[in-house]
Amino acid sequence: MGSATREALAGTRAEFAALGRAELPVAGDLLAATRVIAVTPQLRTALTDNEADRAQKAELVERVFGGKVNPTAASLLVSAAAQRWSSAPDFLDGLEELGLRVAADAAGDGEVDGELYAFQRTVASDAELELALGSKLGSTEAKVALVERLLGAKAAPATTLIVRHLVQSPRGRRIGEMLRDAASVVADQRGFDVATVTSAVPLTDEQVARLERTLGAQAGRRIRFDAVVDPAVLGGLRVQIGDDVIDGSVASRLSDLRLKLAG
């Protein structure tokens, strides 16, 4: 990620924060606009043209989306387009992230990030489902219908909205990767750090609670756990929070031992 994109992301978040809490339809409109821009090269080029000023981009947004999206969504779209991005794909990613953050905010105390992580684990454990949602050969309509059938009556509306968007606009990404990244953005918006904890067997509730207390105290922020079961670690735990990794797995210790013996 380039420095321009980092600054642009900070700018879009600040614009959203200044507006106060938004509603779910605003998130839906932002994500829908992202899909339109993703498949319209000329529009994408115009909105990421650093020579065009905010007024010109606002006029373009009004011309393309006027009357089709919520005014708040249009305002946030203009704000995002007015930033300087390192690349057009970064702009799409940033606009999508903004939509996810609005959805998270609109859900209030809803466990949207937890539902996204749970759905990601379900997809990862079912090859047929993963293929149905992630295959390039499947129709978008069929994928959306499948998401509605699986989540519609069980998950928060924000969760269903996000997953529906992801299967409609993969942009070369794998379904598991998209779900995990979206859950991480939602968790961050709710004030959580995300700790990916990899173990050979599922952790007990007591172990999770102990980890939550320990890591939360170290991070100074609430922790949302993304639990991954991988028999290859053999035993122990591997914990990753952002770029920080604590690898206490048996597999890691055996690897270290082999390196020492080889040296």
Explain this structure.
This protein has 263 residues and is α+β, with helices and mostly antiparallel strands. It is 65% helix and 10% strand. It contains 13 helices and 4 strands. Strands 2-1-3-4 form a 4-stranded mixed beta sheet, with helices on both faces. β1, α12 and β2 form a beta-alpha-beta unit. α1 packs antiparallel against α5.
Set down the secondary structure blueprint.
Elements lengths: L2 H17 L4 H15 L2 H7 L6 H12 L5 H12 L5 H19 L5 H13 L2 H8 L5 H12 L5 H12 L6 H15 L2 E8 L5 H15 L2 E8 L7 E5 L2 E4 L2 H13 L1
Parallel strand pairs: 1-2
Antiparallel strand pairs: 1-3, 3-4
Question: What would the keywords be for this entry?
Answer:
globular; alpha+beta; 4-stranded mixed sheet; 263 residues; 13 helices; single chain; 4 strands; 10% strand
Beta fraction of the residues? 5-15%
User: What are the low-pLDDT stretches, counting only 5+ consecutive residues below 50?
Assistant: none
Order of helices and strands: HHHHHHHHHHHEHEEEH
Span between termini: 37 Å
Gyration radius from CA atoms, angstroms: 20 Å
Structural class: alpha+beta
Give the fraction of residues assigned to helices.
55-70%
Mean pLDDT reading: 87
- Overall strand count: 4
Compute the number of helices: 13
* Strand order in the largest sheet: 2-1-3-4
Molecular shape:
globular
Largest sheet: 4 strands, mixed
Summary, kept brief:
The chain has 13 helices and four strands.
